[in-house]
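TASK: fixed-backbone design
INPUT:
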């Protein structure tokens, strides 16, 4: 295997490591929320630092590959996609931290209601992150397109959460602060799904050299 291929493979493995950490952060933050136990996410700050460090490492590798190897065609798209994917993974980690921050606020109040839709949103969003990286590793544009469509389910659940919590706020103003924190959690999960969608769009670009951004809602992916 030529050195450039080895460099690309190493870059791929680092992206997978970053994705695993980001996914673990989503899981920890949601478990802390559902079980009302901040101890379940006590390492999330250290995990965020790890993700940030990996992003810097990936960017540095990509810049060096672009400068020293001058890749063309598929190899060039791979390096570009790697940089964009690492940016989305870093933002996914940020959203997990935001959920953790919301959870800290929520634990100052009694539980408003059993959480059903939010954990479901988390499972779908987390699955989209995991599957989007699988599509990247497998260079599977068809799989990437299928994952993009799951974003609609997350959006629908977010709207459902908002409607239900709005009802609580209208009927009892004392619930407003708790309800608003839960709405923010749902919003963060929606953003995670959006970032997973971005990764899938990068996979299609990598495999087919085709930009499908802004067209998923029109059924043109």
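OUTPUT:
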């Amino acid at each position: 295997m030529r050195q450039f291929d080895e460099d690309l493979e190493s870059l791929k493995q680092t992206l997978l490591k970053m994705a695993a950490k980001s996914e673990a952060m989503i899981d920890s933050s949601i478990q802390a929320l559902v079980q009302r136990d901040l101890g379940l996410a006590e390492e999330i700050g250290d995990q965020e630092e790890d993700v940030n460090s990996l992003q810097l490492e990936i960017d540095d590798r990509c810049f060096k590959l672009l400068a020293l190897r001058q890749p063309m065609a598929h190899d060039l798209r791979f390096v570009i996609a790697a940089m964009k994917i690492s940016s989305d993974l870093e933002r996914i980690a940020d959203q997990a931290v935001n959920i953790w921050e919301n959870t800290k606020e929520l634990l100052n109040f009694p539980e408003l209601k059993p959480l059903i839709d939010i954990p479901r949103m988390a499972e779908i969003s987390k699955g989209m992150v995991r599957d989007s990286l699988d599509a990247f590793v497998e260079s599977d544009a068809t799989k990437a397109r299928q994952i993009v469509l799951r974003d609609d389910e997350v959006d629908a659940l977010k709207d459902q959460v908002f409607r239900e919590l709005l009802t609580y706020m209208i009927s009892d103003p004392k619930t407003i602060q708790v309800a608003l924190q839960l709405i923010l959690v749902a919003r963060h999960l929606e953003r995670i799904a959006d970032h997973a969608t971005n990764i899938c769009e990068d996979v299609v670009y990598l495999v087919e050299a085709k930009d499908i951004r802004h067209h998923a809602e029109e059924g043109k992916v």
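COMMENT: The mean pLDDT is 93.
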